[in-house]
Structures are given as structure tokens and as C-alpha cells.
Amino acid sequence: MSEEKPPVEHCKGVNGLEKVVLREVRGSSAEVYLYGGHVTSWKNDHGEELLFVSNKAIFKPPKAIRGGIPICFPQFSNLGNLEPHGFARNRIWSIDNDPPPFPTTTSNRAYVDLILKPSEEDFKIWPHRYEFRLRVILGPGGDLMLISRIRNTNTDGKPFSFTFAYHTYFSVSDISEVRVEGLETLDYLDNLQDRARFTEQGDAIVFESEFDKVYLSTPAKIAIIDHEKKRTFVLRKEGLPDAVVWNPWDKKAKAMTDFGDDEYKYMVCVEAAAIEKPITLKPGEEWKGRLELSAVPSSYFSGQLDPQRVLQG
Ligand code: TA6
């Protein structure tokens, strides 16, 4: 009988980077690196990997890990004066041994609390003091939850504003067989057309070429249906009104050194985000952004599971 592994294990990962492994008794697991506060693995109780991480991902600061769930803070995209998608994913986080109590005490055992505070270097490029607490929870049914709490701890009375995204890379069997439900008829900014604003048509999103859109004021639930695997990812979010959908397709894939030329076929990013309206915090104020991911068997293709029902469920 292999010895029972603990629900939370601190160990070394790729290149000796520190990571925390979360395990549930039924066999599901997750991994989060202290580098970037970066979830790099989420497996179901059959040991199947549900997140995409590039085979060419570089697990070495300062390059962000290509895949999993990069944390984009304090900015999303390259429009600000910081590194594209901010610097939180390029920093070493710490274990938070003394988190302030969560309003809802979690009965889950498989969770870890991480914290990021600005270094003096960071303060030079983004002159604000904050505490960014991230709780990663693996639920008893194998669901994965990320709860971010960002507090303004400025002592100079200054508010600050930021944009944010959980830049989640889902593993899919074949991008041409993937549909995203829940974003129909919404307005979006098209990153491939200078962020011009359009309105989505009434059908589910499908993928036939490079796709990079920021959907605005989106519902709390979005479904990503992998037809071939008969699997639906359900993404639930709180405090995150927008959603980014991205696939680089072939040309952009070739241009990324930490991404395989044909890997675009096996991933899709659907990112719970706050982009259109930056979040502003006065000193002492705290923002919370929650993401919950689950993977359900979808008999969608046989018409039994109406994805709309998944969204209402
Ligand atoms: O989320 C979509 C996006 O903003 C794309 O425009 C592309 O830049 C992608 O993120 C990856 O960005 P990264 O900085 O991680 O290479």
C-alpha cells in the first residue's frame, strides 16, 4: 500500500524552484509554484492534466512560465509602462503563514496561502504599497479555486488603480473542436484590430485562426466545451467582470520561443479578468477576485447536456 501523501506538500519543482502540491483523497491534484504564485498543474481524479503548460516553458526567473494560470497584476496587456501583464508572475511569492481570516472558513484541507508584497525595486516601477494574498484551493470534488485579495497599504494616503487577469491556459484535444459558450452577443475589444470595440454574434465562439478578444461585462459562468474529450470546463468568477479569449494560432505560435509551433492546437486561454474598468483602492481598502474551475463530463455532443444548462446550473 503506497503511503498516503499529505493534502499539502512543499517540495522542489523544475530547476529546483519551490512548489506546493495539493492532493485530494479521490486522486485529484494541483501544483503551484512560489515563482509567480503560478498554478502549473490541475489534474482530475484519473490523473489527467487539465491545464496546458508548453513543453518549451522556461521555469527560470525572470521569464514567466508559459501556461498554467499566470497572474496578471498590476496591469493586463502591454498598454501600461510596466512589463506586459505586470510583474506579479515574475516574482517569488512567499507562503503566508498568517493570513487574515476568510469570511467563509474553508473545510477544505488541500489549500495554500501565498503573499506578494512590493520590493524596493518594484516600488520604483510601481510606487504603491500593497499586500496581494492568493489562496489556491483544491476542492473535495477536484474543483480548483483561486482567491486573490489585494489590499492598498499605502501610508501616504494615495489610492491606486490596477487591472488584473487569471490568464488560464486550458488543455484541449483539438482547438478546432472547441466551443466557448456564454459570451454570445457581448461587446468585446479585438486585440487584433487595435482593441476596436465590436459586438459578438449570437453563436458560440469557435476557432479557425488567431483569436484575441477582451469580452466586457461577462456572465459569472463561462463554459469551454472540448468535443473530442467530451469534457466541459466550467469557469465561475466573482469580482472579475471581463473575460479574455486567446489562441495564438500558427504564426504567433512560431514567433514565441517558449511555445511549440503546433501547441496552439492543444490549448485555449479563457481568462477571468478586470480590464475595461480598472479597480481603484483607497488605502486600507481590499479587492477580492475569485476564480473557480471545474471539469464536467459533457455529453453535449449527443445533445443531452445543453451547455446553456451548464451555465445556469
Ligand atoms: O491574453 C491574451 C494576451 O494578451 C495576448 O495578446 C498575448 O500577448 C498573450 O496574452 C500572451 O502574453 P504573454 O505576455 O504571456 O506572452
Describe this structure in words.
With 313 residues, the chain is mainly β. The protein has a single domain (8-312), classed as Beta-galactosidase, Chain A, domain 5 (Distorted Sandwich). It contains 3 helices and 20 strands. The protein has helices spanning 120-125, 249-255, 307-312; strands at residues 8-12, 18-23, 29-33, 38-43, 71-72, 94-95, 111-116, 130-138, 144-152, 160-166, 169-171, 178-181, 187-190, 196-199, 211-215, 221-226, 231-238, 242-247, 267-281, 286-297. Strands 5, 10, 11, 13, 14, 15, 18 and 19 form an 8-stranded antiparallel sheet that branches. The protein has an 8-stranded antiparallel sheet with strand order 6-7-8-9-20-17-16-12. It has a 4-stranded antiparallel sheet with strand order 1-2-3-4, with no helix packed on it. It is globular. The termini are far apart. It binds 6-O-phosphono-beta-D-tagatofuranose. The site of 6-O-phosphono-beta-D-tagatofuranose (TA6) has 11 residues, from strand 18 and strand 19.
